[in-house]
Design goal:
single chain; 186 residues; mainly alpha; Arc Repressor Mutant, subunit A; two-stranded antiparallel ribbon; 9 helices; 2 strands; 58% helix; globular
């Protein structure tokens, strides 16, 4: 039997990793990855976004997003329309063909969620979400939106202009590895 992980950060990260893995196994029947599903769902909540905004909202690398959007355009799920205020930009909109795909994504997400939360009562599920939301609110207050991209997690449908992420170079002098050994993530 596997030993339980008793460290908050490790548990959250591992739950996230396993959730993604399980979701992608289920989404494979659609021929889609989690990234593709996220992009389509975030676009459904934020039609008229630019590619830059959608990349930030969906936490997707801009180059990856271009490929995802090209595929979705080819499949007839989205369309790009010129931005009336910026001739260099395009706004993204769903096409009717995306409705069935979004319905299937929602069905898969519901099934995966049910499987992941199996054995928890309705009260426990609600308590779990309430506690995680409190932790999320604490972290949003502690992590500046400009450095963590937190703007997309607060309220995707009401998000203002997305914040830019800071890109700090990684340490290459060996001290970063040494510091990681001393401090375990919480």
């Amino acid at each position: 039997m596997e030993q339980p992980i008793r460290n908050f950060g490790f548990v959250v990260k591992d739950v996230s990793r396993l959730w993604v893995k399980h979701f992608e196994q289920r989404a494979a029947q659609l021929g889609m990855t989690l990234t593709q599903c996220k992009v389509l769902v975030f676009l459904s909540r934020n039609e008229g976004s630019t590619q830059t905004q959608l990349a930030e909202l969906s936490d997707t690398d801009p180059m990856t997003l271009v490929r995802v959007l090209d595929r979705m355009g080819h499949d007839g799920w989205i369309e790009r329309r010129p931005d009336p205020n910026d001739r260099r930009a395009h706004r993204l909109y769903l096409k009717p063909a995306s409705d069935a795909v979004l319905d299937e994504i929602a069905r898969i997400a519901d099934k995966v969620r049910g499987e992941a939360l199996a054995g928890l009562s309705a009260t426990e599920r609600e308590q779990l979400l309430t506690l995680l939301e409190r932790v999320r609110v604490n972290l949003v207050a502690l992590v500046p939106a400009t450095s963590a991209g937190a703007s997309h997690s607060a309220s995707p449908s009401n998000s203002p202009e997305p914040a830019r992420r800071s890109r700090r170079p990684a340490r290459t002098d060996g001290r970063a590895k040494q510091n990681r050994r001393r401090k375990a993530p919480q």
